[in-house]
Design brief:
The structure is a single chain. The protein is mainly α. It has one domain. The chain has helices at about 5-25, 30-45, 55-65, 65-75, 80-85, 95-105. Helix 1 (about 5-25) crosses helix 6 (about 95-105) and helix 2 packs antiparallel against helix 3.
């Protein structure tokens, strides 16, 4: 597999996982956004000595916006959405079996 094919596969997988998170948010589940905020708070406190990297600060700003804005980033096909999804704060939203199924199906 070439580097370009591998990158495209990884982007498909990341996009598929975030589409599933968006589906839950659209269904009214508050957990994904709450978990992302909790992760950012914990990472800032425990891992980054009080200052988050720029991508995580950008996520914090997105998560402070109306849910429609969050969905635009979770589902968007623009460069900014792809870049932010590559540094996703949604760790722990999907279970291991769900992640593996999405990774397999998006390969």
């Amino acid at each position: 597999m070439t580097a370009g094919h591998a990158k495209a596969r990884i982007e498909r997988q990341i996009s598929a996982m975030h589409r599933e998170i968006a589906r839950r948010v659209r269904a009214g589940d508050p957990m994904p956004v709450a978990r992302a905020r909790e992760n950012l708070d914990r990472w800032q406190r425990d891992s980054f000595g009080g200052a988050l990297p720029p991508a995580y600060e950008a996520w914090r700003a997105v998560l402070a916006q109306p849910v429609e804005t969050v969905l635009e980033v979770l589902e968007g096909d623009d460069e900014r959405a792809r870049r932010l999804r590559a540094s996703s704060p949604f760790a722990g939203v999907l279970g291991a079996r769900e992640r593996w199924a999405i990774l397999r199906d998006a390969s």
